[in-house]
């Protein structure tokens, strides 16, 4: 019986030790993330933002041209052609409308991101630099999410056109 009790106690101690290690790892990870912000100097944060903006600006421009081309040269003419041929275009028109609206979001989100990043590049370094850098990262994530929504709408439009063509 004592041996069984000792095994249970050792098992309990091991479980507590494992839980303690897990908590310690979580705390160390959080501390390291905070320390990383503190270690990265304002100049490094600004250089990182500058390089990211330099990569994002041409990409956003190219994507904007692609989306505009898809809207003006595919979606709208396809809707017009289907409507002229007597097909219901309610769903396609709704997708095109959503796509147009999301293009506005994509454009304004990038403009806000670019404006904030450019302001960050010329701001005086102080203790708010990590917070501003995180905000710029969040704005960039919003732009990426908008791009994903545009891609999803294009896919929905394509799927609806394929479904419509099967009705012919």
Task: Describe it.
It is a single chain. The protein is an all-alpha fold. The protein is built from four helices and no strands. The protein has helices spanning 2-39, 42-84, 90-122, 129-166. It is rod-shaped and about 65 Å long. The protein starts with a helix and ends with a helix. Mean pLDDT is 82; it is low at 9-28 and 30-35.
Task: Outline the fold blueprint.
Layout: H1 2-39, H2 42-84, H3 90-122, H4 129-166
Helix content: over 70%
Structural class comes to mainly alpha
Distance between the termini: 81 Å
> What is the element string, with H for helices and E for strands?
HHHH
The average pLDDT is 82
Please indicate the percent range of residues in DSSP E strands (runs of 2 or more). under 5%
Largest sheet: none
Q: Rounded to an integer, what's the Rg over CA atoms?
A: 27 Å
Low-confidence stretches: 9-28, 30-35
Shape: rod-shaped
**How many strand segments?**
0
Number of helices: 4
């Amino acid at each position: 019986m004592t041996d069984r009790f000792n095994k249970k106690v050792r098992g309990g101690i091991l479980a507590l030790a494992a839980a303690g290690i897990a908590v310690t790892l979580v705390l160390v990870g959080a501390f390291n993330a905070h320390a990383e912000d503190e270690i990265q100097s304002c100049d490094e944060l600004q250089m990182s933002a500058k390089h990211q903006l330099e990569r994002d600006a041409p990409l956003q421009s190219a994507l904007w041209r692609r989306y505009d081309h898809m809207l003006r040269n595919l979606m709208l003419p396809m809707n017009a052609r289907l409507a002229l041929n007597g097909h219901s275009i309610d769903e396609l028109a709704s997708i095109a409308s959503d796509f147009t609206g999301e293009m506005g979001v994509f454009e304004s989100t990038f403009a806000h991101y670019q404006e904030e990043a450019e302001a960050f590049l010329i701001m005086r370094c102080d203790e708010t630099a990590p917070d501003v850098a995180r905000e710029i990262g969040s704005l960039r994530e919003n732009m990426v999410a908008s791009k994903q929504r545009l891609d999803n709408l294009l896919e929905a439009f394509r799927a609806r056109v394929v479904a419509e063509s099967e009705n012919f």
